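Q: Convert this sequence to structure tokens.
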Amino acid sequence: MTQHPAPDRRRPANPANEERRPANHGPKAAARNRAALVVAAREIYAEHGLDAPLSAIARRAGVGQGVLYRHFPDRAAVTTAVLEENVRQVEQAAAAEDATLAGVLGVLTWHLKESAAFIGLLHADGSDRHSGVRAHALALSRRVERALRAHLPDDDGGHRPAAADDLMLAVAMVSGAVTGPSREERERRALAAWRLLGVEVGPVRPYSG
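A:
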């Protein structure tokens, strides 16, 4: 009696199913998603304030809310990431080979009009040193101060530190004027405040390298 091989009951490979399976782009995709979330968070916060739902940030970035939480476990982590990017751009502008104080202030002013959280950062005074968030905000504020201090003109009278203190006071005063329902209005008010203080400000734009 001839024996026939038992039929293979395993499901055949389906090329269509294989094509529908999402590709795993690994760390590059994760880095792109994180960058998109930071940009989206800055935009959403500027439009709707710091209480805007995190789901709106995920939608703006074009990712699911689960992706957002993989990068940022809570609202504080999102805000901290936005602030870190704000400060990093100010520092990059200050470190550029052709940097000027006016140019750095232009980048700083762009972030003021875009980010209410950044305005709060510049008012950090370290009064609550037991708060990790507060301490981090103070550290970021000091990084902004160092970036600006590096471009103050030399003062033969030895008052360079005092000049830096005056400049940070001016920044705080300008940040208080950055109000209004639109980016255009906030920028207009910021530049008007700088003019009243007699400070030259370069083009208001993000640092692009």
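The chain has a mean pLDDT of 80.
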